[in-house]
Design a protein that fits this description.
Helix 5 crosses helix 6. With 292 residues, the chain is of the alpha+beta class. The chain is elongated, with a radius of gyration of 21 Å. It has a four-stranded antiparallel sheet, with no helix packed on it. Strand 9 and strand 10 form a beta hairpin. 29% of the residues lie in helices and 20% in strands. It has nine helices and ten strands. The longest helix is centred in the C-terminal third of the chain and has 22 residues. Bound molecules: zinc ion (ZN). The site of zinc ion (ZN) has 7 residues, from helix 8.
């Protein structure tokens, strides 16, 4: 799933390639992906892409004041196409293609664009056409951006203060902090040497400062590594940069201990016992439930 660093990089990628270009048309193949109907998606035709922004994990293309907002969800991706002029017309079907955005040809006659694809059967990719991105409920309720200057240790202390949830869940909650998902919450907690099940409210001031440092450093490093990469290379870069996430069974880079995993119904987390839990493996809740 693309998280803050990948979406930031996609925003930069589109800023370089799409800004200044006119939209020829937006073809919605997966009709369930389109979450708004007024203004219609056809209203984007003829408008020029004037800016690209990121809100949490949302991509926001400003097209002369009308916004095309994209949430790639768990299995969605953006694929840039240098020339769509010979592409076949899109047809609703079972394939991964959800939306195609066609841009006007350049001087060389190439008509680039990009496609939003979504793998798997669970379709969660979401596209919105709106004059005001803040009217999208999941954008309006986003917590602070961890790369913003206002995201200080004090700000994190206010967020955490009295919160009785486990720190892993808190980091992933978009209403609390925007942009961190399953992968980078694992990475942040490993960098902070903190158990994913630690209750937020029990963190000391020193631990909150460490957690803040881990959040900012982990995300900034990932943004830096992803900077300037083509959209197609982002997934591999994300994978190669991860130290614990999806690396169960492999040795920890920091201490050499074996990275472990806790599985849930529809996700899993990975951590290093030596770095994060005093050497003790965490109970696998799904397993312990079965054993009862
Ligand atoms: Zn370790």
């Amino acid at each position: 799933m693309p998280e803050l660093p990948e979406v930031e990089s996609l925003a930069g990628f589109l800023r370089e390639r799409a800004v200044g270009r006119t939209i020829l048309g937006v073809d919605v193949v997966a009709i369930q992906a389109l979450k708004t109907f007024d203004p219609p998606v056809t209203a984007l035709g003829g408008l020029t892409v004037t800016g690209v922004a990121r809100h949490g994990k949302f991509l926001d293309l400003d097209c002369d004041g009308l916004h095309l907002v994209i949430h790639l969800a768990r299995a969605g991706w953006l694929r840039w196409r240098d020339d769509l002029s010979a592409a076949k017309p899109v047809r609703p079907g079972k394939g991964p293609l959800a939306v195609r955005v066609r841009l006007a040809p350049d001087d060389e006659g190439l008509a680039p664009g990009f496609e939003l694809t979504e793998a798997g059967t669970q379709k969660r990719l979401a596209v919105y056409v709106t004059k005001n991105p803040d009217e999208i409920p999941n954008v309006a309720t986003l917590g602070p951006d961890p790369l913003a200057d206002s995201f200080t240790v004090e700000a994190l202390k206010r967020i955490i203060g009295g919160n009785r949830t486990q720190i892993k869940g808190l980091l992933r909650d978009q209403k609390v902090i925007a942009g961190i998902g399953n992968a980078y919450s694992d990475e942040v907690l490993h960098a902070a040497k903190m158990s994913p099940f630690k209750i937020a409210a029990t963190l000391t001031d020193a631990q909150i400062a460490d957690l803040h440092e881990a959040i900012v450093t982990t995300l900034r490093d990932a943004v830096e590594r992803a900077h300037g990469l083509a959209a197609k290379d982002l997934k591999a870069e994300k994978k190669s940069g991860l130290r614990v996430h999806n690396r169960a069974g492999q040795p920890c880079d920091v201490c050499g201990d074996t990275i472990r995993e806790v599985s849930f119904a529809d996700s899993s987390l990975q951590y290093c016992p030596t770095c994060q839990t005093g050497g003790k493996p965490l109970a696998d809740r799904r397993l312990s439930k079965l054993l009862k």
